[in-house]
Amino acid sequence: MNFIIDEEHLCSVLEERVTSLTFLDVNLTFDDVKTTAFVDHPEFSKLRDRLESEGYIKVCNSTWNGDRVLRPFSLNGKMEFQIGETFQCSSALGIRMKLL
């Protein structure tokens, strides 16, 4: 099976959140704390979710690049994934795609 994604979506994007931060040991809370992180592009996340729901990968959220391929497939007809191989994050796959 071949899955298609626009190559510009093989990247990470900046995500900002506002939250509260509480230190229980000193009973101190800071409201409106802004945090930033890099996350997979939303379109890549949709593809990853689809691959998982259709049984092509097993998603592992507890480690970086921990997803594993369960069934062979290709991405954009360029990258082949075999059983047991790591399915990397969007930015890593973007670099890999550019090297092909």
Describe the structure.
The model has no long low-confidence stretch (mean pLDDT 90). With 100 residues, the protein is an alpha+beta fold. It has helices at 42-53, 90-99; strands at residues 2-3, 12-23, 28-40, 57-58, 67-69, 73-75, 79-81, 86-87. The longest helix has 12 residues, at 42-53. The chain has one domain (6-99). The two termini are 19 Å apart. The protein is built from two helices and eight strands.
Relevant terms:
100 residues; alpha+beta; 3-stranded mixed β-sheet
Describe the structure concisely.
The protein is built from two helices and eight strands. It is an alpha+beta fold and about 100 residues long.
Topology:
Blueprint (H helix, E strand, L loop, with lengths): L1 E2 L8 E12 L4 E13 L1 H12 L3 E2 L8 E3 L3 E3 L3 E3 L4 E2 L2 H10 L1
Parallel strand pairs: 1-6
Antiparallel strand pairs: 2-3, 4-5, 5-8, 6-7
